[in-house]
Amino acid sequence: MDRHVDVAEPILSGEEKENIDDVLTSGRFLQGPFVEEFEEKWAEYIGTEHAIAVTNGTAAIQLSLKALGMEPGSEVIVPSLTFGSTATAVVHQGGVPVFADIDRELYTLDHLDLERCVTEETFAVMPVHLYGHPAEMDEIRDFADAHDLYVIEDAAQAHGAAYKKQKVGSIGDVGCFSFYATKNITTGEGGIVTTDNDAIAKNLRMLRSHGMANRDNHVTLGYNYRMSELNGAIGTAQVDCLDDLNHRRREISERLLTELDGLDWLSPATVRDYVEHAYFWAPFEVHPDKLGMTGKDVWDTLREQGVETRHRYNVPLYDQPVFENHRGFNSEFPWSMNPNTHDYDLSLPHVEEVVGNMIGLPNHPNLTEEDIEYVIETIRSFEQSV
């Protein structure tokens, strides 16, 4: 197969290299002007008072839980379909993940399942804006307020997404972003936390730098989670490009969703009319009962034909050994600190229907017209080629 279409590709403007050269010339690699500029730009873009840059998206979640004051054994409600670090970050901070089902149409956390999940030990709800589509934040926020819970937005896949004209990352108590290499924009590796709360922001800045109030005063147990100047130099250039990059992602994704609509074995994901989708994925659900093949089979076959797709989250989080077997710290900590039984013997109906059958088609802004046509033609002819 001569043609090959990548599923993801970092997009650089050229300014990133200039900024990196400036860092190398200055010799200042930590806590310099580029990280500060990146934080200021991101806070302005999201619409929050603060943005605190850290080493990665997982660190962003861990620091947020710590800054909010989660106690050992506290529970955090998370969706069952997402990347594992949403839940492992909870365990790393001494919390117990509680797995909720997903919305059958959006694949995000199902707010209708929250009542089943909440207990006296619940500390927070963590919706994930999966694939770039915002979760149903009004209902989640209302539920959290009624039960006096924090809302932590995992926006690692939703740079620039908006819910009812409000940017994700500004709706909950904190928002956590990742800038891994394949995200809508990248810093190479990195993360950031957004919040309007001055006290939380102060805690986050202290916690990311060894828990120090100043160089000689360790106030609390902190971490070395500071973003480097090299990452900040890339990030501050990338922010300026995000809207244009997302516009192109949206054009490609909506074209794929439109032109592939009507295939009985492949369904485009639902998009609510009151959201702005970031399209980290162009997500589709494979229906094995119509095709006789699973999502993994489709992924393999498309790859053989030169079309890379995303095929992830193929095991519900509650079936992952780290959670099933309570592989946290010694003596089953943090589960041992919680009075409730968490054996994770679950079979949640919506996630069980979906798991293993989601694919994401190529939609990055570097795709050519020929690439897009080839993806569409390959999918359309798929039934004849298998």
How would you summarize the topology of this molecule?
Blueprint: H1 15-26, H2 33-46, E1 50-54, H3 57-68, E2 75-79, H4 85-92, E3 96-100, H5 114-117, E4 122-125, H6 137-146, E5 150-154, E6 162-163, E7 166-167, E8 174-178, E9 191-195, H7 198-207, E10 212-214, E11 217-218, H8 229-239, H9 242-259, E12 266-268, E13 275-276, E14 282-286, H10 288-291, H11 295-304, H12 321-324, H13 349-354, E15 358-361, H14 369-380, H15 382-385
Parallel strand pairs: 2-3, 2-4, 4-5, 5-8
Antiparallel strand pairs: 1-9, 6-7, 6-13, 8-9, 10-11, 12-14, 14-15
Describe this structure in words.
Helix 3 crosses helix 7. The protein has helices at 15-26, 33-46, 57-68, 85-92, 114-117, 137-146, 198-207, 229-239, 242-259, 288-291, 295-304, 321-324, 349-354, 369-380, 382-385, and strands spanning 50-54, 75-79, 96-100, 122-125, 150-154, 162-163, 166-167, 174-178, 191-195, 212-214, 217-218, 266-268, 275-276, 282-286, 358-361. The model has no long low-confidence stretch (mean pLDDT 95). The longest helix has 18 residues, at 242-259. With 386 residues, the protein is of the alpha/beta class. The protein has two domains: 15-241 and 316-340, Aspartate Aminotransferase, domain 2 (3-Layer(aba) Sandwich), CATH 3.40.640; 242-313 and 356-385, Aspartate Aminotransferase, domain 1, CATH 3.90.1150.10. A seven-stranded mixed β-sheet has the order 1-9-8-5-4-2-3, sandwiched between helices. It has a three-stranded antiparallel β-sheet with strand order 7-6-13, with no helix packed on it. Strands 12-14-15 form a three-stranded antiparallel β-sheet.
